[in-house]
Amino acid sequence: MSDSRQNQPARWPYYALAAICCITLIALIYVLTSSPEKRHSEPATEIRAAVNVASLPYEERMDAPMEEGVKRIDYAIIRALQDAHIPTSAIKLIAVEQQRFGDETFHFQQLRIETALDPENLVAPIATALLQWSDKTNLTKLSDRIYRVTFNGVETHLLKFTKTSGTAGADNSAVSQDIGGHLTIVIDDLGESISAAHSLAGLSYPVTFAIWPRSSYAKEIAQVASAVSREIIIHQPMEPISADAKPGPGAVYVTMTPEEIRETIRTNLKLVPEAVGLNNHMGSKFTQKREAVRAVALEAKKSGLFVLDSMTHAKSVFFDEAKRQGLIAFRRNVFIDNVKEVPSTLHQLKKAERIALAKGTAIAIGHPYPTTLLALQEWEKQRNKKVAVVKLSEMLNF
Questions:
Q1: Is domain 175-397 annotated with CATH 3.20.20.370?
Q2: Averaged pLDDT of the chain
């Protein structure tokens, strides 16, 4: 009897082909699913790389070209000086002045840079960094040691280079205990990290906790804040302009009726009963609609809360409408961490100090990023003691 297997073709080529296909498929899946961070070693904010505006680390992209442009210039200058090994203590923010351009306000700044280097050695890398961050920026020499920066033809910064002295880096104003201004620091987006809350609670100065009402750990973080007498406000999600930016659960939208808005706010307030105020999370679209923000203001008023307009859009009417309805209302002056780096955040904190000294009060908003927490700890050591850090509600006294 003949063996039928002798007439069948050999099967090993099929097994080999199947194995090759499996290996190829596994390799393809690995490439497609590996994170961009692992495939690219350079960070998105590296100033030597071409800048992709869409990759800027904003929570919500603000429709404020001047303010955004000024903060890019801040970052480019700081990074260029950092790369030239100029210490942060040698970069002095000596004056800040609020100016207006169209519908926007922005902060004109004077910087003094103390260095033993010739200014020409620093101006070249600064100019390169500025151009990489914006083709609308220009650096002009006014004298051997003074340079002007413009954005869209508007003067935004004045750079003054001085020779290093034996007391370089010392800031005598930080030694004086005479109070010249009051500053409130609000930390938004709290509710998902208990460790971040503990870090903020451990600071020697008070920060205001803005808690997402429907976050995972809203109750626990409110307890952390209350245990050290930190002020708590509701971080109320509101509709942004961009459909891609999601404000999260418990948000209010312009398509809601006033009663639907008020019911949403009521529900959120019950989740964080310790709150004494309310500010907006996102909301670049919502805060431009007077009827919509009126409903929020009326519900806040009913609960005895004050309102902080985070100013995520230059045309926000949230502050104005809250005042019209008889509420205590505030407006944000500075976002401290649009760029998630410690030197940049420290610069924005110093800007907030200068505004407080010039105007008497200032409100700065940040987020629980690791770099922000580190910057707040570092600022604790070097902050200007002429500026008192106070709770938001205490701003009424100044």
A1: yes
A2: 85
A 10 A CB-CB count for 180 gives 16
Residue 300: Cβ-neighbour burial (10 angstroms; 0-12, 13-18, 19+): buried
Residue (of 228, 323, 211, 333) closest to 272 by Cα position: 211
Q: Tell me how far apart the terminal alpha carbons of the chain are, to the nearest angstrom.
A: 109
Q: Where are the alpha helices (H) located in the chain, listed in sequence order?
A: 12-33, 36-39, 65-83, 119-133, 194-201, 218-227, 258-271, 290-302, 318-324, 342-359, 370-382
Which tens digits make up the pLDDT trace of 156-170? 999 999 987 544 444
- Cα separation, 42 vs 364, whole angstroms: 30
pLDDT tens figures, 110-129:
999 999 999 999 999 999 99
CATH number of 55-163: 3.30.460
Amino acid letter, residue 253: Y
Domain boundaries, the chain: 55-163, 175-397
pTM of the complete model: 0.75
